[in-house]
Amino acid sequence: MRQNEERPPNERRSRTGRGQGNGKPALRSTLHQRGMRMTPQRQLVLDSVRELEHATPEQVCKHIQRTTPTVNITTVYRALDLLEQLGLVRHTHLGHGAPTYSAEEHEHVHLVCHHCGEVDEVPCEWFEELGGLLRRERGFALDASHLALSGTCAACRADEADRGGNTGDPHGADPDEGG
């Protein structure tokens, strides 16, 4: 499956392994501190983002509508906007089209396979050296937590190698040989 094709949420491959805490006390107290009320729709959106791990607003809406068909896409967009303002979710652009949301449980960089659509995560710390170089050479402060890199995942590279094709590395380097 190609990156720009929409994979149904229950078929999206992800290797994040994040926990699925429900976050009800955190969301309720955060909203209450700001003079807002907790709504079932807001909780459904947050729970869906956590369950799906990486999802567009449309995927979140479809996921919710399986059990609560009265929730519409406008409600989902408003809830996502609020949840992002509260620091509970974060969006990034994993490809063309709608932004993808994930729970703001830890800062990470997304790795997106442009062959199968798999989304993986790596810690932002992996990019500290690059961030230092950009700061020294260009005066640029990198926000790696909003970064998505595209390439070819290990499984697709292995499939291509088994077929005798291009492994997805434009330089022809074998990552196992360090070059």
UniProtKB/TrEMBL annotation:
Binds 1 zinc ion per subunit. The keyword DNA-binding applies. One of its GO terms (molecular function) is transcription cis-regulatory region binding. Pfam families: FUR. One of its GO terms (biological process) is negative regulation of DNA-templated transcription. The keyword Transcription regulation applies. Residues 1-14 have a biased composition (Basic and acidic residues). Signal peptide: none annotated. InterPro entries: FUR, Fur_C, WH-like_DNA-bd_sf, WH_DNA-bd_sf. Residues 1-38 are annotated as: Disordered. Zn(2+) binds at residues 113, 116, 153, 156. It comes from the Bacteria. Fe cation binds at residue 128. Its cofactor is Zn(2+); Mn(2+); Fe(2+). Keywords: DNA-binding, Iron, Metal-binding, Repressor, Transcription, Transcription regulation, Zinc. Belongs to the Fur family. This is Nickel uptake regulator, Fur family. It comes from Actinopolyspora xinjiangensis.
